[in-house]
Specification:
379 residues; Aspartate Aminotransferase, domain 2; 2 domains; three-stranded antiparallel sheet; 13 helices; metal-binding; iron-sulfur
Length: 379
């Protein structure tokens, strides 16, 4: 049976060149970058070069890059670290209903210890209202955290416009760019963000590594203590092989940015065409101008759990925005915010996402198999 992976937004396969070079590097450069001997200095050289290279991808300074274990840690350090270190400015935070749980759960923690959190709603296209944002800013607002591109439906928020609004306010601005990095052109100066989170495994790099951009001079309270790594902002021996692989993956990803976007948008149109050919009932939840690799589709009269199981049996790997626990699926918080708790879409929508290795032939094969499954489960 042919297997097609259409879940790149969850994680992506490591680029073969990254895996090969990481393996060689792990065998040859195993020193601790904090050690002063030649082995340590070699590791430090690799680490410093990766920091310079990754900083350049977003037009940041090397010292503004904090290496983390991934997007979740970067989000937590940005939100909790900024809030705790700057609580003298206020204890009010603004975020949205459709953030990744790494952001939402960090905010819930802060609520428990006395912070006031405003969760901005979105419209049916998944967009926040800039007027809502402006109206909710107070003299106690210390942080605004709004994701760049949504992981479930792909909607891209007006980050540049938000940054412009916040230039006139004391609040720091964080954006979770985990899904957008490597796909969208990102320039932190142009966007006027103070903090930005990125993860390696979304761009064909290794798992367990990411970075937080934190603007020079911004105060952060560390989330762990021990050594003085990352300019005392994140203790612990750096994951040098992972960071090395992350750097390679980022450079490879950015070199093919334009071609990827064109291919992924073409894949969406190909799937739509084949669904129409099969006369399926469906509606697209993803906006036309959203992230090109994320394609969320509503299939009326289907059930997520049944659909995902049958797709897996047909060799198609996809996902929903739901968390499956103990045999039950909770509605997607993103789709609930977009369409309401009573909408059938929240339990009948599937996310397909594209990436390295996905071909037009894969898309055509998958779309026909998906159509067969939809007909089967709705018969």
């Amino acid at each position: 049976m042919k297997r097609i992976y259409l879940d790149h937004a969850a994680t992506s396969p490591m680029h073969p060149e990254v895996a090969e070079k990481m393996f060689s590097m792990m065998k040859e450069s195993y020193g601790n970058p904090s050690s002063i001997h030649s082995f340590g200095r070699e590791a430090r050289r690799i680490l410093d070069e990766a920091r310079r290279s990754l900083a350049k991808t977003i037009n940041a300074k090397p010292a503004e890059i904090i290496f983390t274990s991934g997007g979740t840690e970067a989000d937590n350090l940005a939100i909790i670290g900024t809030a705790l270190a700057n609580q003298h400015l206020g204890k009010h935070i603004i975020t949205t209903d459709i953030e990744h749980h790494a952001v939402l759960h960090a905010c819930k923690y802060l609520e428990k210890i006395g912070y006031d959190i405003t969760y901005l709603p979105v419209d049916k296209s998944g967009m926040i209202s800039l007027e809502d944002l402006t109206n909710n800013l107070t003299d106690q607002t210390v942080l605004v955290s709004i994701m760049y591109g949504n992981n479930e439906v792909g909607v891209i928020q007006p980050i540049r416009e938000i940054g412009h609004i916040l230039k006139k306010h004391q609040a720091f601005f964080h954006t979770d760019a985990v899904q957008a990095y490597g796909i969208e052109h990102i320039d932190i100066t142009d966007l006027s963000v103070d903090l930005l989170s990125v993860s390696s495994h979304k761009i064909n790099g290794p798992k367990g590594v990411g970075f937080l951009y934190a603007k020079a001079g911004l105060k952060l309270q560390p989330s762990q203590y021990g050594g003085e790594q990352e300019l005392k902002r994140r203790a612990g021996t750096e994951n040098v092989p992972g960071i090395f692989g992350f750097q390679l993956a980022a450079n490879l990803s950015l070199a093919t940015q334009k071609q990827k976007s064109e291919n992924y948008n073409a894949f969406k149109q190909e799937m739509i065409s084949i669904f129409q050919e099969h006369q399926l009932m469906f509606e697209v939840n993803s906006p036309n101008d959203g992230l090109p690799h994320v394609f969320n589709v509503y299939f009326p009269k289907t059930n997520i759990e049944s659909l995902l199981v049958n797709l897996d049996l047909a060799g198609i790997a996809a996902s929903s925005g739901s968390a499956c626990t103990a045999g039950s699926i909770d509605p997607s918080h993103v789709l609930v915010s977009m369409y309401g708790k009573e909408s059938e879409r929240i339990l009948s929508s599937i996310r397909f996402s594209f990436g390295l290795g996905t071909t037009k032939e894969d898309i055509q094969y998958a779309a026909h198999e998906i159509s067969k499954v939809i007909k089967k489960v709705t018969a």
